[in-house]
Amino acid sequence: MSVFMDLNLRPTAERSTLQSLLDTAAHLGYSAVAINYVFEPTSKKKQEIPKPTPTSELFDKLPTVQGRSRPIRVLNRLTIVASDASHFRPSAPEFRSFDLLAIHPTSEKLFHAACMTFDVDIICVTVTEKLPFFFKRAPVSGAVERGLVFELCYVPAIRDSTTRRYTIANAVCLLESCKGRNVILSSGAEKPLELRGPYDIANLGLLFGLSEGDAKEAVSSTCRSAVLHGETRKTASGTVYTKRLCTGPAHQACTDSTHQQEVTDPGSEAADEPAAKRARPAPAVTDSTAPAVTDSTAGQ
Amino acid sequence: NMENLQQTSRNLLVCDQSSLRHRKCRLSQQVQQHHFNHQVSLLLPECGSAPPPLDAALRSFSSSYLLRKLPLHELLDTHFLQDAVYQGSVYGLSYRSRIDEDTCVALLPSGQLVLSLDKDVYERLGVEGKPSRFNQRANSRYVVTVNLTDSSMAPGGRGYQRLLTGLKSRVQLQTDFLLSHHPGGGEALKALLSRYDWTEHRPQVSSRLLTNLPCPTPLTSDLPSCDPHSFLEWLGAVEAEVSCDNESTSFLSTLVCPEPRAVLSRALRVRVSGLLLPQDVYRLIEELRRCWDGRGTASWAALTVQGFADSPVSWGSREHGFLKGGENFYSLLLCSDHSYWLCMGTGAHDGCPP
């Protein structure tokens, strides 16, 4: 098992709400969260993809996770709600500033394309209304093989009893096709009161049809593999990555704000995701005190 | 699969019935093998205060020491090995680390060092280990067990060097650590205590007098009037101070005391908590036994020992995990004729108690 993560926190205009949302998440025991910026392109006018605010600007202080000694890790995520493939340009430079990319397909065609070909990490499943399409085994298995995860949000179920019915129905429908693999449960919370603890969400997973072990994985290990999948997008299949070289006392400030914990080994974890992007043996690990450009060669 | 919703997580209960006078009584092994005890709770019926010898036994549990931010390679320090590991028994457990999220470390009195590592740390450490028994689909947790008293782990040996390099340079593991030593106490640990921030923890003793307590009767171990599950439910309710009245107006608890029942006018519940050594627990059991040799006012006593929820091992070196709960405990019902009922319970991610 790995640490608990909630990969869908919705920022509102108020910074203080986001700070208290983060404090609550840390208090509940989540070790990593992702701030989700939602982008709904319409064909009418050209919209700009939102830029994520750097974590250091958003939060004065990162709270420590309850029961552990590390501060909470904050990632940035972009969700694209779309019904047409033309809205998604995978090589757009704006996408590079996000740690996680998600797509919320509203049509069957886009769902199929997203599962089989799109370079995303998370596929969101509608929970607030009747499913616009059915889940077919073929695209779902294709997505599972590529290392994508399917996301179910639980906050709409807390807010309203009608959406609660849709959430459970849609979740059961998804789980029939994917057999409990590669599913993550996240909140979609905008307010601190909407968050629930990881063990409670694992119990909610039982209602959706996950087994006990799978439900706990849905808030821990599967989230971890989604995050690592996101890292491989930045790093040329997870074997090469570059870091800005800084010298002197300013080098601590130069380290990437998203790599707050010790930098893990993207190469070996890319092999985690089932059959996705077979990486060569792990490159050497750097930590933030050794400024260098690493490249992939032999293992450790 | 809606039927699954009616089932709770798997748990195991092993019940043993015997007498302290019996030649092949295994109680001593079962108690000694449960290395990491967090809380001992004693229920004495018809008692207002603990008899002096029992009170003395309760208050004489050994202290433990909490070291802050101990780098784990220090557990391989030669002075520590000489003074603590090779002499007597050292009990060590990582503090504030969660067995299902973080790295957890345990140092067993037999000299075994058990490291429960997540995948990233294990792959970087470079020491051979086994995947956890409780891994779900992919191997996300690994357990490295090293015997520090083995000849290959003698300082300077190959195994020792490999682990030391791993812990010093490849993966600098550092954690708060609870340590205790029998029989040396703080003296044996001074190699480490002198170098790191530490606090001593004396086990805390608290007691509470309960009145008008319904209780199953008769409580003897050879003619059990109720089955172990019901007895444990009742005992748990008493410990947690949950009412067993099952009033129609109360929606909090539907627990009931098993029938036939009697009402005790008073009972004493004493609790000790800290890092408690199994030797001290067994000494308490012996003291309880001696209490009956003198006088026979009470006919039974119940002792419950809780283990740590985040310990990598439960009994012996059996792996312990945390799915929905990390229980590993045993309850002992000791009767005045020296017979007893021992119920050992573990949770979903656990092996079978001895």
From TrEMBL, chain B:
GO terms for biological process: endonucleolytic cleavage in ITS1 to separate SSU-rRNA from 5.8S rRNA and LSU-rRNA from tricistronic rRNA transcript (SSU-rRNA, 5.8S rRNA, LSU-rRNA); tRNA 5'-leader removal. InterPro entries: RNase_P_Rpp40 (IPR013893). One of its GO terms (cellular component) is multimeric ribonuclease P complex. One of its GO terms (molecular function) is ribonuclease P activity. PANTHER family: RIBONUCLEASE P PROTEIN SUBUNIT P40 (PTHR15396:SF1). This is Ribonuclease P/MRP 40 subunit. It comes from Myripristis murdjan (pinecone soldierfish).
